[in-house]
Amino acid sequence: MSDDEAAAVQRIWSGLGLPGIIDVHTHFMPKSVMDKVWNYFDSAGPMVGRSWPITYRTDEAHRVETLRSFGVRRFTSLVYPHKPQMAAWLNQWSAEFARETPDCLSTATFYPEPGAADYVGAAIHAGTRLFKAHIQVGDYDPNDPLLDDVWGMISDSGIPVVTHCGSGPQPGRFTGPEPVRRLLRRHPRLPLIVAHMGMPEYGEFLDICLDSAAVHLDTTMAFTAFVDEMMPFPAGEQARLRDAGERIVFGSDFPNIPYRYRDALTAVTAVPGIDDGWLRGVLHDNAARLFEIALPSA
């Protein structure tokens, strides 16, 4: 990260009259887990399917300072398990990270396993602000009966869940819109944030967002040249982006992105047909409202 990049990022949000950015899709994990994630990307594993260089491969403290230098007011520590008996440990780590990093929204996760409701309840009681559910990596059905109580508790609490449920970059056994539709029929007030705009099923997840008052979409990697090579956002859906504007929030996937942070922002600002009011909502105000984040005092 250079001073020039930080200045370029700051010019984008300051030019819109914003106090900074709220990024709902960033990853901070225990070092052993992050190293394994980076090794997986390095190997172009089957869920990645292509060369994917990690742009911000630095130590944890440097990554935090990088986001702060960009003017990111709040960010997340999205953690996720790929097997049983992993989620509770990740939640403990993430809660400690949030205590030490007050601009990080305290994040938790879960997996379909006995006891999931217990550690999810503990996370809610401890003040978690956000959950992460990675349907693709976890390879589980979100409608698994082991998660019935979990979804009910989260729905009652109103705590948002960032969920990777679309079929990009590679489809999983339980990805796609239909499992989410079934989940929402049982829990219509569930505050989901669909990661990556639901790529590549953009249109169907826009349908879900517009039909379900509690559902949001995050912009993570959408609209970028990297994604447009394989899974471009359909031009015919741009009008509905405006319709869903109050429920679209910015996400970057930092640090695991194969381009610069500023590129994620410029991709969003270049979406045809949107205006500054839409951008102010997406880059800051929608998430500020969702997470009840106050504006800085004058």
From TrEMBL:
Residues 22-292 form the Amidohydrolase-related domain. GO terms for biological process: secondary metabolic process. Keywords: Lyase. InterPro entries: ACMSD, Amidohydro-rel, Metal_Hydrolase. One of its GO terms (cellular component) is cytoplasm. Signal peptide: none annotated. It holds the Pfam family Amidohydro_2. Gene3D superfamilies: Metal-dependent hydrolases. GO terms for molecular function: carboxy-lyase activity; hydrolase activity. This is Amidohydrolase family protein. It comes from Mycolicibacter sinensis (strain JDM601) (Mycobacterium sinense). The lineage of its organism: Bacteria, Bacillati, Actinomycetota, Actinomycetes, Mycobacteriales.
